[in-house]
Amino acid sequence: METSKKVLWIITSLVLLFLLPYLGAIIAFNGDFPPNLFTYPAIVPQAKSHFNGYIFAIISVFFVAIALLYMYPRLFGFKRVVVYVSAKKKAPLPLWFWISLVVWCGCLILLWGKFQGIRWFLKFIDILLWWSFTLMIDGIVYARNNRRSLVTIRHRELVGVAFASILGWMFFEYFNFFVDDNWYYPQGGQLPPAEFLSYSMLASTAVFPIAFEWYSLFNTFESFKAKYSKGIKLVLPKWLKMTLLVLSFGVMFSISFFPDTLFFAVWLSPLIILAILLSEMKIWSPFTSIKDGNWSPLLLIALSWVVSGVCVECWNYFSADHVNGQIITENTLYWAYSVPYVDAYHLFEMPILGYLGYLPYGIYAGVWWITFAFLLNIPTQFSEAGHDNV
Q: Key word Transmembrane present in the record (predicted)?
């Protein structure tokens, strides 16, 4: 397929991803949208279906299966891989690690201390918090990988990932409208909507870089990287990929009709669509090496946002006081969740089963950057030849 046709197919798919939920909403609401449908930021939770023990149990089985896959891959057909690790030359932690550590700790102290005299600063603290955390991880990668990290050898690509991260996250904020706000921002009303949007966009520049930094760190552990490299060889037939593609577009069209039933679609459908497009265009993605039995790129990039998710949910939760069900905080970007069927047993604000959503989101971060880089002809080493060096 010619490059121009590939670009056309990708752009067409992104336009459909944007339009289909909107067109579905027009039909679902007979053209008369609820007044709060496109309110941004959403500051109050919307009514959702109550907890369902059967659905919770079914998803819990999947949750346990995923955990077992990561801990005991041989249960799932992976072969044991013996890795002879040669002594790598290590480097001391770089200056930006220590600066970032001080900034990150300082931000946490100010955020968790809830100091009233610096309200203006707390409103915008997440930008510093997220980026200092990202650069801390990069510093560890630098030390473990003989002075090679995104900052030192791929800083231009890191900037590109940051810009791609804005649009990648804004898509999710847009999809969130149509599932009755799976997440919302209780203190979002402290800022005018345009100012909140600008702040959210700046903070989102770190969302995808965090995933790439964790992925880079995982790849510095040779035995961990090799643990998932000898699995089942899986090749999806074209008819199945086309079926999944059509179903994913159909689901995105339908989410306004069944927002509770399809609330999970925002985490899966965009990823499936982009992954299948890349596959058909012979562009490397974390799914590509599965055909050879190497699941490491897929499982490690998926894990990147599970680890990140636990971290960010932790510092988000403790930035607020929780009094009689009320959230009291000066953190403008504080977020909470309102999900159907499984809203129970929380770890911080997130329902425990909600962490499953971070698995496809980590993969989405990788797939989105590959797509973004291809469209803009940006050189990237996140490719078949160099994905393990990300």
A: yes
